[in-house]
Design a protein that fits this description.
The protein has about 375 residues and is α/β, with parallel strands linked by helices. Helices cover about 30% and strands about 10% of the residues. The chain has twelve helices and ten strands. It has a ten-stranded mixed β-sheet with strand order 7-6-5-4-3-2-1-8-9-10. The protein is globular. Residues about 1-20 and about 375-378 have low confidence and may be disordered.
Length: about 375
């Protein structure tokens, strides 16, 4: 079933009713190319990466103003609280001047960093495609205008619900109405400014407890002027960190959907088609496909992240991807280097990275990857 429906650009960008303007078409092609950066031709994979990374995940902060029940930082301190220092941020970018894509989120809320727009501009001045996820609580008029002016390419709003009480159950605090208002005002400002970027999307984590929100979630997105909706797969621990945590196997839709749950996803797709909203899933696949296993024997073997990207925490620790912190407790088992003590190029093909890649190519992958391997959030 095809769910990659046209995304409607702001008013005035369409030269004709049934097609994109050249500017909107170019933006769409640029976005989709960046989403598929990991789908490279099959080189001979080995412990050594023969190309520089094409993407950096820079955790601008590990601080957050919510207490999400699906997030490990709610239940333990993974690293000392910090914002990535400006000097470290710029040095990381400057080490890879040809980097194509930079993601400014990790374990934390990027808009808590006061100079986030300045960091976006630093990247855009170098021709980098830039995006980040936000919880939307701080997306006021001033901050929103600064992000537009800086040239941010994508702004992904993690909302996770279509109504306030369900939002509070998942996100830990009751900011639902404020966020909905913030997003609506932001998209209205974009229309007033005729600003096609950033491309705004709403994200809902696929949980048994929230799947019935999906049809109204699509309607809500349309109502606030957002024309991209994503169903994101839940990353969960085998041993939940708390009795209150929803990051647990029994909450996940993956490989265990009921007929009712599949009907709700189909209903959301039908609503999206009717309203002209693109309803997709994390990893550039359709929602139904995203909750089905694609390779039974070794799902991790599909992953190309250790050959295409680097993730650096706010404190400079280098991890294999943004999923690892959600899939295994503690960072010790998958720390590949420290960017405050060695260059990224030294780390990229250093001993730890080589051992990690080598393990991913075997039947006994690194522990953080054993239950992963499909296309998670990008």
């Amino acid at each position: 079933m095809s769910t990659l429906l046209p995304i409607l650009p702001p008013d005035g960008l369409l030269e004709q009713q049934d097609g994109f303007s050249p500017a909107a078409q170019a933006a769409e092609e640029d976005k989709n190319r960046m989403r598929r950066y990991f789908q490279k031709t099959e080189d001979a994979l080995g412990p050594v990466a023969h190309h520089e990374p094409v993407c950096l995940y820079l955790e601008t902060t590990n601080r957050c103003n919510l207490l999400c029940t699906t997030c490990p930082r709610t239940y333990e301190q993974l690293e000392p609280e910090a914002d990535m220092p400006w000097d470290l941020f710029t040095s990381l970018i400057d080490q890879y001047p040809n980097i194509a894509r930079v993601v400014l989120h990790g374990i934390g809320e990027p808009m808590l960093v006061k100079d986030i727009a300045q960091r976006v501009k630093y990247l855009k001045d170098r021709g980098v495609y830039v995006l980040f996820n936000t919880n939307g609580t701080l997306l006021n008029e001033v901050n929103g205008k600064a992000l537009i002016d800086a040239g941010l390419d994508e702004l992904r709003v993690s909302l996770d619900a279509a109504e306030s009480d369900v939002y509070q159950m998942v996100r830990g605090k009751d900011f639902f109405d404020k966020i909905v208002e913030n997003v609506g005002r932001f998209t209205a400002m974009q229309r007033e400014l005729n600003a096609p970027k950033p491309r705004v999307s709403l994200w809902l984590t696929g949980l048994r407890e929230t799947v019935d929100q999906l049809p109204n979630f699509v309607r809500l997105a349309h109502r606030v002027g957002v024309f991209e909706v994503y169903l994101q797969r839940l990353v969960f621990f085998d041993d939940p960190m708390s009795d209150k945590s929803l990051a647990r196997a029994e909450s996940a839709l993956f490989e265990h959907t009921t007929a009712r749950e599949e009907a709700l996803i189909q209903e959301a797709e039908d609503v999206a088609k009717e309203l002209g909203v693109m309803f997709s899933a994390s990893g550039a696949v359709d929602p139904g496909e995203s909750i089905k296993q694609q390779k039974d024997d070794a799902p991790w073997s599909l992953c190309r992240r250790p050959w295409s990207l680097m993730y650096i925490t706010a404190n400079g620790r280098v991890l294999p991807c943004c999923i690892a912190p959600f899939s295994m407790k503690g960072y010790g088992a998958f720390t590949l280097g420290n960017a405050t003590q060695a260059s990224l190029k030294e780390i990229w093909n250093g001993g730890e990275y080589q051992r990690f890649r080598e393990g991913l190519l075997t039947s006994a992958p690194p522990p953080a990857c054993a239950n992963c391997g499909l296309r998670w959030s990008l």
